[in-house]
């Protein structure tokens, strides 16, 4: 699947045979072709699985926003990823992502203050340093940009959370395994075993760290001392929210980096615009986020019988909102399959929408803007040095291997 490719399905395609749950579709197929067809022919589509589970797919920008905005009709408390479809989410009401207001608000507001743009300013030099090291590695390449980018967020998120550097590499692998348990590069036995192993190790890690006397200056220490809703967070709430914060950073930011660089390689004229005018970096980052949509979907469950585009959604039904599709909606984005660093307006929802708009969005935007400012200051062009391999995951729209060489600017 090429990043910029648009391949429509044949008009005779049987929509009922599509399997958006299959993680391998995202590794070797073209979900954008499927999403385009669904937007045109079935923007609210029901998929039934052989085991009796089923879920609705919502693919239009307006409808995705409607579902994500309205927590009274579409709850997050029964799980937010298709990996929990048909089962009870143990994090319900404990993890910010798996709760609704007022519990979500109680957790979100203090964490958002810790991750505000102003609070993150002291970390800009650290991110710049990490970005420069990444570029230096690429110049000596070829190197696998996907592997280098995988460690990019941990270098500052790990510092921000107060996680020792010797733990960063293992935690990076575990977070990827948690969202891509069927990918052969991360699988330990079967997918269920991989998911259980990754969750056990991650939860155990944060359980140990949050039980220690908070001495290090980091986000975990701040969470331990945090008062939300007039009380301290319980131990299980600490563990789940540390896991969620790390997962959000590690499985989205790296893929925004690799897919944006790939878009530059495939659209050299757009990269040339940045070289000629560095003021365009911020817009290029936003277009890269729209283009990559690192989080492919978020799941909700209907709390009542309701209607979406004429389709009757019953109380209890699972509803998958496909952000990658919404961000290529022809009704919202003119020429949506054209990568355009000057696109304006650019109302993408790569960070979600509504109450659950990503609490780490400011951190991700800061990191990506600093990194791409460093890149455009140093790199004349990127060249692919091998095949691009996509991650087998129905959640993270990711690239797991992308060998590249960076050619430095001469002036």
Defining key terms:
single chain; 411 residues; alpha+beta; 5-stranded mixed beta sheet; 14 strands; 45% helix; globular
Structure characterization notes:
The protein is of the alpha+beta class and 411 residues long. It has a single domain (15-408), classed as Orthogonal Bundle (Cytochrome p450). 45% of the residues lie in helices and 13% in strands. The strands form five sheets. Strands 1-2-10-7-3 form a five-stranded mixed sheet, with helices on both faces. A hairpin with a 5-residue loop joins strand 1 and strand 2. Helix 8 runs antiparallel to helix 12, helix 13 (253-266) crosses helix 15 and helix 15 (281-292) crosses helix 17. The longest helix is centred in the middle third of the chain and has 21 residues, at 191-211.
List the total number of helices: 17
Rg over C-alpha atoms, rounded to the nearest angstrom: 21 Å
Pairing-aware structural class of the strands and helices? alpha+beta
User: What is the CATH top level name?
Assistant: Mainly Alpha
Give the topology, please:
Layout: H1 25-28, H2 31-41, E1 44-48, E2 54-58, H3 61-69, E3 74-75, H4 103-114, H5 117-120, H6 124-139, E4 143-144, H7 145-150, H8 152-161, H9 168-179, H10 191-211, H11 219-224, E5 227-228, E6 231-232, H12 235-250, H13 253-266, H14 268-276, H15 281-292, E7 297-302, E8 306-308, E9 311-313, E10 318-322, H16 323-326, H17 361-378, E11 379-384, E12 389-390, E13 399-401, E14 403-408
Parallel strand pairs: 2-10
Antiparallel strand pairs: 1-2, 3-7, 4-14, 5-6, 7-10, 8-9, 11-14, 12-13
Helix pairs in contact: 6-17, 8-12, 9-10, 10-12, 13-14, 13-15, 15-17
């Amino acid at each position: 699947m090429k990043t910029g490719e648009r391949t429509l399905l044949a008009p005779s395609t049987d929509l009922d045979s599509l399997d958006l749950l299959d993680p391998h579709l995202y590794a070797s197929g073209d979900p954008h072709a499927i999403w385009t067809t669904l937007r045109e022919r079935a923007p609210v589509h029901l998929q039934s699985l052989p085991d009796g589970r089923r879920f609705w797919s919502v693919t239009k920008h307006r409808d995705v926003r409607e579902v994500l905005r309205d927590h009274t009709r579409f709850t997050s408390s029964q799980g937010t990823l298709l990996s929990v479809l048909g089962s009870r989410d143990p994090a319900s009401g404990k993890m910010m992502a798996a709760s609704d207001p007022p519990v979500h608000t109680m957790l979100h507001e203090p964490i958002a203050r810790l991750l505000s743009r102003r609070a993150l300013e002291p970390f800009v030099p650290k991110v710049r340093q990490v970005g420069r090291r990444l570029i230096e590695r690429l110049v000596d390449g070829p190197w696998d940009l996907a592997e280098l980018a995988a460690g990019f967020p941990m270098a500052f998120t790990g510092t921000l959370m107060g996680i020792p550097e010797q733990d960063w590499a293992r935690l990076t692998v575990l977070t990827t395994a948690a969202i891509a348990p069927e990918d052969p590069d991360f699988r330990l036995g079967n997918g269920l075993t991989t998911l259980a192993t990754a969750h056990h190790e991650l939860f155990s890690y944060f359980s140990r760290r949050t039980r220690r006397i908070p001495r290090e200056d980091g986000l975990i220490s701040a969470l331990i001392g945090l008062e939300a809703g007039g009380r301290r967070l319980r131990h299980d709430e600490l563990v789940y929210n540390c896991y969620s914060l790390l997962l959000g950073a590690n499985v989205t930011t790296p893929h925004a980096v690799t897919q944006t660089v790939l878009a530059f390689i495939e659209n050299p004229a757009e990269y040339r615009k940045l070289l000629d005018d560095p003021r365009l970096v911020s817009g290029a980052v936003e277009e890269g986020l729209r283009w990559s949509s690192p989080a492919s979907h978020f799941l909700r469950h209907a709390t009542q019988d309701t209607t979406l585009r004429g389709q009757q959604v019953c109380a209890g039904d699972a509803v998958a909102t496909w952000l990658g599709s919404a961000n290529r909606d022809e009704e919202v984005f003119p020429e949506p399959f054209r990568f355009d660093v000057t696109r304006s307006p650019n109302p993408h929802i790569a960070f979600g929408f509504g109450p659950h708009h990503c609490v780490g969005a400011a951190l991700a935007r800061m990191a990506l803007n600093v990194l791409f400012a460093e890149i455009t200051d140093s790199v004349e062009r990127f060249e692919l040095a091998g095949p691009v391999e996509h991650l087998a995951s129905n959640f993270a729209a990711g690239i797991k291997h992308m060998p590249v060489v960076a050619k430095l600017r001469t002036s």
